[in-house]
Amino acid sequence: MSANRKNEVVMQKLKLFSVLLSLLVLMPFLGLAEARSLAQVEGLRFWTNPGYTRVVLDVSRETDYRFATLPADTKSGVGPRLYVDISSSERAADLNSVVNVRDGVVKKVRTGTPQPGTTRVVFDLAALGEHKVFHLSDPFRIVVDVGGSGQAVPRDNPTASASSPAGKDDGIAAVLGSAPESAPLRVRLPSGDGRPGLRRIVVDPGHGGKDPGAVGPNGVLEKDVNLAMAKLLKQYLEKELGVEVILTRDRDIYLPLQERTAIANRAEADLFISLHANASNDRRAYGTETYFLNLARSEQAAAVAARENGMTLKELGDLEAILFDLMANSKINESSRLATEIQKALVADLSRNYSNVRDLGVRQGPFFVLLGATMPSVLVEVAFISNPREEALLIDRRFQERSAQAIARAVRNYGVALNLLAQR
Ligand SMILES: [Zn+2]
């Protein structure tokens, strides 16, 4: 072999070596990319609200995302845009690439793939107004709120203003400091006509998704019972009172507590009713009770509030210290009145069909889910899921129907008493 030929072979070996080396260096990354398949952008839903449009992007798992706006390009005649880039994702095969919204705020929403592994969702806007992009978990979804020209996007939590200590998901920090960085500073003023009346009611089935609520001795989950009863209550209220009813959730999904009242505030609802089942360490405990938001007046009320809030009694004490400020907007008198009607109707109607109905009365407590609601709001603990007898009742269809009927009747009584409802 000549010297030249020898050099050539050495060079080739070096080349091969460097290729192998770079493969070795890259391998872990290639492996990772394969191990974690791309998130699927599966759905695109939108709602047109007074003054703003909400678009929800359903994504199959949690993944990073970023968003930005682009001003109108007069040269090419393209209007202002907002786009969201979803990392490590791809469009599901059946997702439409263009969705026409045309509601005066959002013209259309387009999805595309600017580079492999990134899904870009582009919002063609009528004007560059305020916007907010945030996500919700379980299932993961990215929410895009876009305001019309000069319109403020509603805040998630109208009471959010103070700085706060760190805390758990639905804890104090979430209530006080949950506004994401992109949250606008302006607060939307109510655009309702101000006439008193009962037109829209938000019914909130407690818990859901990763949060089962209390679990009965025979495995009944509170979240399931709450949802079944809420659907019945919606039916009865719509049929018998002719009001519009919005459920905070109509399936088994997780919703942070502050998101529930935010739904009611955004909808400018006239009432907010949260449905729950009670629980106690003492399996013998049973009965029906209805709560409205206030400082806890008893140890039991504090215990129930702590459980429903997912916090300790100590944390509840910290919350109570700041509660006075946050309650400024709450309708305590009306809430107390509504709670009284519901409690009365539930006990009376259930007593006609069941023995051992125990009236635990109307109570008050610092419930997160009622915090920040600007309309009369109550939380109903229909029965104890921790009591085997009442656990069986809670999954009984007739019991669910009778309870929902009683609550609907109570809402009617409340409306008639306060002259909010024409007597029919
Ligand atoms: Zn509950």
Automatic annotation (TrEMBL):
This protein's GO CC annotations: outer membrane-bounded periplasmic space
Domain MurNAc-LAA residue range list: 261-412
Enzyme Commission number(s): 3.5.1.28
Positions of region (Disordered): 149-171
GO biological-process terms attached to the record: peptidoglycan catabolic process
GO MF annotations, alphabetized: N-acetylmuramoyl-L-alanine amidase activity
Catalytic reaction annotation: Hydrolyzes the link between N-acetylmuramoyl residues and L-amino acid residues in certain cell-wall glycopeptides
Keywords, ordered alphabetically: Hydrolase
UniProt-listed Pfam families: Amidase_3, AMIN
Name recorded for this polypeptide: N-acetylmuramoyl-L-alanine amidase
Organism: Geoalkalibacter ferrihydriticus DSM 17813
